[in-house]
Amino acid sequence: MHSPDLTQDHIARLRELFPACVTEAKGDDGAVRLAVDFDQLRQELSGTLVEGPQERYQLNWPGKREALLAANAPIAKTLRPCRDESVDFDTTRNLFIEGDNLDALKLLQEAYLGKVKLIYIDPPYNTGNDFVYEDDFAESAKEYLRRSNQKDETGNRLIVNTVANGRFHSDWASMIYARLKVARSLLTDEGLVFISIDDGEVANLRSICGEIFGEDNFVAQLVWKKSYGGGAKSKHVVRLHEYVLVYAKQKESVGFLSLPPNEEVLRYYKFRDDKFDVRGPFRKQPLATNSMDPRPNLRYPIEKDGEVIWPEKQWQWSKDRVIEAMNNDELVFTKKNDGWTVDYKQYLKDEEGVVRGAKPYTVLDGPYTQRGTAEIEQIFGNGKVFTFPKPSELIEEFLGYCGTSGLVLDFFAGSCPTAHAVLRKNATQGTSFSFIAVQYPEACDQDSEASKAGYRTIAEIGKERIRRCGKQATRDAAHEGWNRDVGFRVLKLDSSNMADVFYAPDAVNQGALEGFTDNIKPDRTAEDLLFQVMLDWGVDLALPITRQSIQGREVLFVDGNALAACFEAGGRIDEAFAKELATRKPLRAVFRDAGFADSAAKMNVEQIFKLLSPVTEVKCI
Questions:
Q1: pLDDT one-digit tens code per residue, 319-346
Q2: Which residues pair with 439 in a beta bridge?
Q3: Nearest 5°: phi and psi at 258?
């Protein structure tokens, strides 16, 4: 029952004429809506350069600074282990983290800084009905910091980012910007990030990645032909492709990107020489060429057994390089009736023992989305349990760019095709990749096929897919070098294990002090505490865990002696126990503060470790 909003109508008409002059901006009330960039409009309507703000090359949007704040702000949360939902909890090297991915990435920073070889993500495409994470960028820095440190927080909720939203692009850009900003720090120097995206945000995403990773670290914008047949329905064109942006942490460290040679290539490597043990077999490649433009410096004679050999047209290499290859016995001379043929040896492996392959192409013809749906059908018996999944074979191809081992991260895990790709590649090719999958427990629609099949959240679908893929891999014929790790350790994002204290010192009376004697929340287990300590200490969360009893006290050992933890309460940590534990010489030892009878007992234990195991770092929580 309102009259028409003429301002917005005028802006819409102006947008038809000058789309670059309409942008998103904050109003006086803090709300973001469409607005006119009058400086740009003046330039559009002028035949000369209009004076205005200093120009610089950048992508800007309302909320960008707040997104940077969100990426850098600390949180008071932890990861709690869930054995019941895990597979091979104590021995697996794989992780499944359930919770908001921005919080999860922050928690992983200490333990996995510079350790991830490959990141693949398939974020929401911002089509008008996809879910994106609502990070409340409208609040002030002080408000954000206060909210992000509330210990009873369970994570940001999800909203639909509709086209009608005034900050349709801004919200999406802020969401992805904050997460990529944190994720970059997890990559190794030679690490690569692969991001699937469609036409809607590819330009913005490329600008964001250029800012976060640096334009010099751009590797490729792959075009993935995702469908055969009619393609996606569209009013104007038939859409058959999407994109995968590839960026490096430090491109100069990546080296030569190659795919492992397939059987078609391997059949040409059939010759052996005395370098076989190091560089494998070789194939002959003609040193002479007819296809290059004439180059006088490549036409020269070489001498073999007293005979002078000229190329029919010219050589491929300079004379210095040919002489070096002759001295290294890397040329093959064959006497023929009409003269000589000269070939060079192309070994299967380079001088460092790395297997040669083919450089990947920027156009990927499949695997198609229909294959991704078929995988869901094969795994669950219902192809509609999860719609439009990426085919795991696509991600498996990206794994081939990164050698034979390393840590793979997917923080928009969905139905977990990345984890599927890792398990299958390890099982069939003997590689040693491990994965971290992060998925928000987004509720499945009550009327969806997933809900009818008994899955409450997307995270449950992903976990079940990994379980079933692992069983399938162990049933099928496996590579002899496979480590047979098909497990995963489930960790769930939760509030800190430390009890909330809402009183200032001058507001606490003597009678209330008894309630503060134990600073741990009552519902937290020893393993809960162990994983928070591992996070704080930067210890790999996938290291094996064992339990032992020492003088009747339970001790958790991580990776042998990397970490020893005893969280017994009630003053049960005494000198006799400390002496026996110190003889194990763990690198780190952690105790619960309530485990000591008094301050004197705590100091005595610390002195015992200094005397018997000075290399041990002792900590109390």
A1: 999 999 999 899 999 888 777 889 999 9
A2: 98
A3: -150, 155
